[in-house]
Amino acid sequence: MALSFENRVVVVTGAGNGLGRSHALLFGSLGANVVVNDLGGSGAGEGSDASVADGVVAEIKASGGDAVANPDSVTDGDKIIQCALDNFGRVDVVINNAGILRDKSFHKMTDEDWDLVYQVHLQGAFKVSRAAFPHMRDQGYGRFVMTTSAAGIYGNFGQANYSACKLALHGLSQTIAVEGRSKGIHSNTIAPIAASRMMGTVMSEDAMALLKPECVSPLVAWLSHESCESTGDLFEVGAGWMSRLRWQRSQGAYFNPAGFSVDEVADAWDNVNDFDNPVYPDSIGYTFKSLQANPHLAD
Ligand code: NAI
What ligand 1 atom has the least distance to the C-alpha of 45? Predict the structure, then answer.
């Protein structure tokens, strides 16, 4: 069985280069109507160039697919979704991929570095997703893929602005997953590694050769397909490898909520940090269950 996106409308942001271009080409080859969004600015978020999105649309059409170019910034998310509606009449899938880098060590980071990275990554994904969500609710179907980063999951030197926004995208995805579940709307997050102009600033040429964007796009397409049941999940992916990440929690320690001392915390510290018998919480309800299991509450 070949998975198809016939009659589906897929919006890919930042689809003029790197990962987004690869995603858009794959969706185009699988029969989707693709909105190729790209502002066409520099890797640091300066300037614009409408021909960047046009070039990818030409590639999709040359291979027999159907696509339309959109040169708006993701901060104007409603215009991007309107473009999908005007050209194809619906929106089924949103791939939030557009991104920039303005790396600086934390003590040197300016308000502008912070604000611009926030606007493109987090505010942009919010604007595009919020504009699409009501249409998905009405049609009882939708798929989102957010693009986070290992820098967001683990932290990375010089990327305070980027890592903060990237991990926030997973928070956004998890809540969209909760709110969308009853409406047939799924949302998942990927943390890709791929050679691109963005990674060219931090990786050697040899390492870049191993990391094709085309090794990330099949996961993005699968998560976007109606037959994929995953939602609220997070995946690392690159160079022909993919793996799901989840929270792991130690059994922890319980104290008397009526009052306890810092010495009791110090004495229990090994238990708080003991992962020998972990649990895997997957909802806010799980946290409340753990609080309620405090044996001191029965005192
Ligand atoms: P890239 O720089 O090749 O492509 C990003 C695209 O986003 C560019 O074409 C750019 O014009 C577009 N863009 C930037 N600001 C925009 C805006 N305001 N509105 C619309 N489009 C805009 O970068 P790459 O590597 O393909 O990155 C894609 C995504 O993957 C980004 O979100 C990035 O943070 C993320 N990522 C990439 C990794 C990698 O290894 N390449 C690692 C982890 C995350």
Answer: 15
**Does the pLDDT of residue 201 top 70, yes or no?**
no
Q: Are 132 and 154 in contact (CB under 8 A)?
A: no
> Among 19, 73, 153, which residue has the most ligand 1 atoms within 8 Å of its CB, making it the best to mutate?
19
Please classify residue 221 by burial: count the beta carbons closer than 10 Å to its beta carbon, then call 0-12 exposed, 13-18 middle and 19+ buried: buried
For ligand 1, is residue 234 a contact (CB within 6 Å)?
A: no
Q: Does ligand 1 have an atom closer than 6 angstroms to the CB of 19?
A: yes
Global confidence as pTM: 0.96
What angle, rounded to 10 degrees, do the helices at 160-180 and 124-139 form? Answer: 10
- The H or E element containing residue 29 is helix 18-29
**Confidence grade of residue 142 (pLDDT, cut at 50, 70, 90):** very high
Residue 164: pLDDT band (50, 70, 90) is very high
- Enumerate domains of the chain plus CATH numbers: 9-245 (3.40.50.720), 246-299 (1.10.287.4290)
